[in-house]
Amino acid sequence: MRVAVGNIRDLTDETVAFAKQLGCTSITLNTPPLTGRPSFGSNAIGKTYWVEPGDDAPPVKWDFLELLHLRTRIEADGLTLEAIENVPFYFYKKIVLGLPGWEEQLENYCETVRNLGRAGIPVLGYHFMGNRVWRTSKAAHARGDAMTSAFDLALAETAPPTEDVVVDEDKLWENYTRFITTVLPVAEEAGVTLSLHPDDPPVPSLGGVARIFRSLDGFKRALDELGNSPNHKVTFCMGTWAERGVEDMFEAMDYFGRTGRIAYVHFRNVKGVVPKFEESFVDEGDVDCAEAIRRLADLGYDGFLIDDHVPHMSEDTVYMHRSRAFAIGYMRGLIQAVTGAKT
């Protein structure tokens, strides 16, 4: 079990140094801003690669060489790229919502997965939230008045439809079935693990779009029935599961841990449960994080954990270096205390 630095979007010398100074040996990238076009060189190590002139259209898939450059850039600094979390949502929004043009998006998504495999990137995190993560407040307060976010279903229920279509649960399952039965065989052939994140918040519907990965039953259908494969696992987001309740979180952890389906862990904490909760520092929420590490160790989990949502501390950066450094140090300390192993 080890800690990787997570939620990195722009790969810079500073982010690499941050990871190494915290004692981490690996990182994950979240929706890196790739051009999606063939790149054949660079004018400097770590700088933007040049592409064919005159082509500035938004990318629709990721390019092999760009992905390879990311991996080798990280390895050149003595780190490992554990995973990439999320392609840009517009890459597959039509697939999720069942909009015209989903066929082309599905073809492009498969090619992105192939290119990840060709570039030696082992894990792609994904979600199937048609209108993504919701919070009703960004002005809540954690310990010491650190800024954090919160959700109140009573406030969200007044939201208008977020899309031009209303997508009920049956339709979303239809769209997901088409997605996973097409993409998973490609991932298997490419040697890429797909890692499914739960719906955050875990409620039946928001803004006219259903949420099917809000409970263990939904995950069992996705992983045991529709996409049963060693190349299909879960991003175990402790915070999202805890939004349903700590007992539900540990039940899910035990289930996925026993069956070897945890690709990696989002290590975060919350106070409260749906319909109303707020984010917290990792050591002040409802989850006993030491018990979470003990449980993972007992389950034989030997993968990586990353920092996830963190409060914004005083005079922190946009990336929230201070808060992430606290979370990562806390995680590394827990692992060492529980397992005796340095991470």
Task: Describe what you observe in this structure.
The protein has 343 residues and is α/β, with parallel strands linked by helices. The protein has eleven helices and 16 strands. Strands 1-2-5-6-9-12-13-16 form an eight-stranded parallel beta barrel, surrounded by five helices. A hairpin with a 6-residue loop joins strand 3 and strand 4. The radius of gyration is 20 Å and the shape is globular. About 3% of the residues have low confidence.
Concise account of the structure shown:
By secondary structure, this protein is of the alpha/beta class. Helix content is 37%, strand content 22%.
- Residue runs with pLDDT of under 50 for 5 or more positions: 42-51
Q: Radius of gyration, Cα only, in angstroms?
A: 20 Å
| N-end to C-end Cα span | 7 Å
State the total count of DSSP E strands. 16
How is the quaternary structure best described? Answer: single chain
From the helix content, strand content and strand pairing, which structural class follows? Answer: alpha/beta
Main sheet properties: 8 strands, parallel, barrel
Give the helices and strands as they follow along the chain: EHEEEHEHHEEEHHEEEHEHHEEEHEH
> What percentage of the residues does DSSP assign to strands (E)?
15-25%
- Helix share, percent: 25-40%
Total helices: the number is 11
For the biggest β-sheet, the strand order reads: 1-2-5-6-9-12-13-16
Average residue pLDDT: 94
Q: Any idea what the shape is?
A: globular
